[in-house]
Amino acid sequence: MSRLPTLSATEIPSERLLLRRALHDADREGFIELSTDPEVRAYLGGPRPRSEVEQRFDAVITAEAASRPGNYIIADNTTNRLIGTLMLARRSTESPGHVTEDGEELELGYVLRRSAWGAGIAFEAATAALRAAADELPDQPVLLVTQTANERSLKLAARLGFRPVSTFQEFDAEQTLCTAPLSMFHI
Question: Rounded to two decimals, what is the model's pTM?
Answer without folding.
Answer: 0.90
